[in-house]
Amino acid sequence: GEGLPRPEQTRIMVVANQKGGVGKTTTTVNLAASLALHGARVLVIDLDPQGNASTALGIDHHAEVPSIYDVVVESKPLSDVVQPVPDVEGLFCAPATIDLAGAEIELVSLVARESRLQRAIQAYEQPLDYILIDCPPSLGLLTVNALVAGAEVLIPIQCEYYALEGLGQLLRNVDLVRGHLNPSLHVSTILLTMYDGRTRLASQVAEEVRGHFGDEVLRTSIPRSVRISEAPSYGQTVLTYDPGSSGSLSYLEAAREIALRGVGVHYDPQHAHAGG
Ligand code: ADP
Ligand code: MG
Q1: Using DSSP, how many helices (H) and how many strands (E) does the chain show?
Q2: Residue among 22, 142, 229 whose CB has most ligand 1 atoms within 8 A, to mutate
Q3: Which ipTM value was assigned to this complex?
Q4: Which residues of the chain are modeled with pLDDT < 50?
């Protein structure tokens, strides 16, 4: 990797948007791989019962595999379920199995139901630069657990009609969690995904999002790319599936921008170079 500055403390980023199909999982795994290729140690926590992040990282997550369900519901240590991601040094994954589908209901009657993931992360002793949490497309107790555990919210926004619709609900939940459970929580990063610069719609949506969120929006956006959507079926991120593709370069660049912001270094896209 090219050795970007590392954060002083582990940055815990919650990738959330209650809309499905906006690029949460794609962003989680590709950004995580990019940060690892830049030299960071990164853990992906798959908090979606679908287990798409686990699949995309090539991590076994059939029903018997120790998983994030065991951590959140059964209070198992996180270290019991974390697996190294094949082919990407410094990248790890806590997989989700289908068990997690029941967790929303099971959590309701458990003590400290909102802070079980936070406790597990606090007890995890391996050194990490980043933890990226891939949330399900809902605002239930699993997403609340992620919002209590993290400090930063990363919202992927698809450059489509109704891109901002429903975001108010997510932002209100972030405010609620900040007010009651996690004072450090804030929306730190907005990433425009599936951006098609040839369409007027995409640039209009991008403009609207930048007008609404300002500096939180990364300068780098992620293009719509077939290579990005093909990679998961090979159990790979686009970074290993097609390293030179526009999708790879854009995620590497987004990772660089996030890393530089984290240490307060001005990001200059004019000198942008995407290389691993
Ligand atoms: P979410 O996790 O928010 O439901 P996903 O990350 O699973 O969304 O993405 C939804 C679909 O869009 C997937 O089929 C994925 O492969 C595809 N996709 C995501 N980002 C891109 C992109 N930049 N270019 C092309 N396809 C993409
Ligand atoms: Mg997903």
Answers
A1: 11, 7
A2: 229
A3: 0.99
A4: 1, 273-276
**Distance separating alpha carbons of residues 48 and 72, to the nearest angstrom:** 12
Q: What is this structure's pTM? A: 0.96
Encoded amino acid at 192, one letter: L
The full set of domain ranges for the chain reads 11-262
Of 42, 45, 32, which Cα lies nearest the Cα of 10? Answer: 42
CATH architecture type of domain 11-262:
3-Layer(aba) Sandwich (3.40)
Q: Which two tokens stand for residue 115?
A: 């802070």
Pairing of strands 91-94, 83-84: antiparallel
* Interval between CA 22 and ligand 1 midpoint (Å): 6
Query: Which positions ≥6 away from 71 have C-beta within 8 Å?
Result: 77, 78, 80, 81, 94, 116, 117, 120
pLDDT digit string, tens, across residues 31-58 = 999 999 999 999 999 999 999 999 999 9
Give per-residue burial for 260-273: e unless 16+ CB within 10 Å, then b: ebbeeeebeeeeee
Query: Cα–chain-centroid distance for residue 224?
Result: 18
In eight-state DSSP terms, residue 266 is P
For residue 108, how far is its CA from the centre of ligand 2 (angstroms)? 23
CB-based burial label for 109 (10 Å; 0-12, 13-18, 19+): exposed
Q: CA-CA distance, 13 to 9, in Å (whole number)?
A: 12
Distances (CA, A) of 151 to 94, 112, 145, 244: 19, 19, 12, 32
Which residues line ligand 1 at a C-beta cut-off of 6 Å?
Answer: 20-26, 52, 137, 193-194, 222, 224-225, 228-229
Rounded (10°) angle between helices 246-262 and 24-37: 70
